[in-house]
Automatic annotation (TrEMBL):
This is UPF0309 protein. Residues 37-223 form the SIS domain. Transmembrane segments: none annotated. SUPFAM superfamilies: SIS domain. Signal peptide: none annotated. It comes from the Bacteria. PROSITE patterns: SIS.
């Protein structure tokens, strides 16, 4: 890649090409993912979304946003403090994501029902807490949808003691097509710049939501969807929709 390619237009050109590839290559996987989501909604389940690091951006894209499905819940390591009574200092541990038992604790705090779907998001797909969450969900009978980079996960060793990776565990895998290390534009002399996984991840999340909503509509069911709280009546209308899932979905200020 030339120096001239490391530019705003270079990133736009390269990332749009990958986005188009994702749209074309993921049709079957998105359809399968959408069926998991639609089945969850039909059975009065909640979509439990979990990720760490920058993958939390995609959790927020799925859970509790305008235009998104109401029965969605964001799981976060911060739940240990917010809902589990842990001292905030626990979050200072840089190795917390590698600690055994963290995912099981987060699962218990969420108190999911059997009909809930777990969406586990990780670009690498090897982080210990990510793999543990997917395994724990499967052990409790949940379906698991993964959003990950197959290129990255295939290029790095497993970190979890089981020797398994997120893609090995999930019922359906959405590949974000990000390269190993995530950065898209190669730098002269080595290294790269500009992460891609959030852009492609958002596309896959919204394609899945759209397809799931379409399937519900085709079956004569109206999908429970959030309206922006910043339009008249939006906040109040959303509160009414949330009543059906009281105690099962968390909506905090952050």
């Amino acid at each position: 890649m030339s120096v001239e390619s490391v530019s705003a237009q270079g990133f736009a050109r390269e990332s749009l090409a990958v986005l188009q590839k994702v749209v074309e290559s993921s049709r079957d996987d998105v359809a399968a993912a959408a069926e998991l989501v639609a089945a969850c909604v039909r059975s009065d389940g909640v979509v439990q979304a979990f990720g760490t690091g920058h993958s939390q951006a995609l959790v927020l894209e799925l859970a509790g946003r305008a235009g998104g499905l109401v029965p969605t819940n964001r799981l976060s390591i911060a739940d240990l403090v917010l809902y589990g009574g842990e001292d905030p200092s626990v979050l200072d541990d840089p190795l917390l994501e590698r600690r055994a038992g963290v995912a099981a604790r987060l699962y218990d705090l969420a108190a999911p029902r059997p009909e809930d779907l777990f969406v586990v998001i990780s670009n690498s797909g090897v982080n210990s807490v990510i793999v543990e969450m997917a395994l724990h969900a499967k052990e409790h009978g949940h379906r698991v949808l993964a959003l990950t980079s197959l290129a990255h996960t295939r290029a790095v060793p497993a970190a979890h003691p089981s020797g398994r990776k997120l893609a090995d565990i999930a019922d359906v895998v959405l590949d974000n097509a990000a390269p190993r290390g995530d950065s898209l534009l190669e730098l002269p002399g080595g290294g790269s710049v500009c992460a891609l996984s959030t852009l492609t991840g958002v596309m896959l999340v919204q394609m899945t939501v759209a397809e799931a909503a379409g399937r519900l509509l085709a079956a004569g069911e109206r999908p429970p969807v959030y309206v922006s709280a910043n339009v008249p009546g939006g906040f109040e209308g959303n509160l009414e929709l949330e009543k059906k899932y009281a105690g099962r979905i968390r909506r905090t200020a952050s």
